[in-house]
Amino acid sequence: MVMLSAVLLISENEKLRIENQRQKRKKAQWRTYIAKGGVLSGAEGASCAQAAQTRHKETTAEAAAERPQRALRKCSICKSTEHTAHTCQRRQISR
Predict the structure, then answer these.
(1) Which tens digit of pLDDT belongs to each residue from 17-67?
(2) What single-letter DSSP state applies at residue 86?
(3) Structure letter (DSSP) for residue 87
(4) Cα–Cα distance for residue pair 9/72, rounded to 1 Å
(5) What's the whole-model pTM score?
(6) CB neighbours (10 Å) of residue 37?
(7) d(Cα 73, Cα 7) in Å, to the nearest integer?
């Protein structure tokens, strides 16, 4: 009985962790609200949207610069960077 309770608690904790991560990602999504009370003209709305888009591009460029570079893809059979194992000639020969 105790073992079953422990297994159920572990399972529930894992589900809660997954849901928490999903909610964190959702909360971190980029959102912009341009309305600040009153009515905006088309030109005002367009300029606000353009400014927000520019700020978003700048922040994503900064984030991309901070992100580490990914390693080049390479074939796991012959270690070539020109193809992957799926299209490797050595794999097709051994079939």
Answers:
(1) 999 999 988 888 767 666 667 777 888 888 888 888 888 787 777 777 777
(2) G
(3) G
(4) 41
(5) 0.33
(6) 5
(7) 40
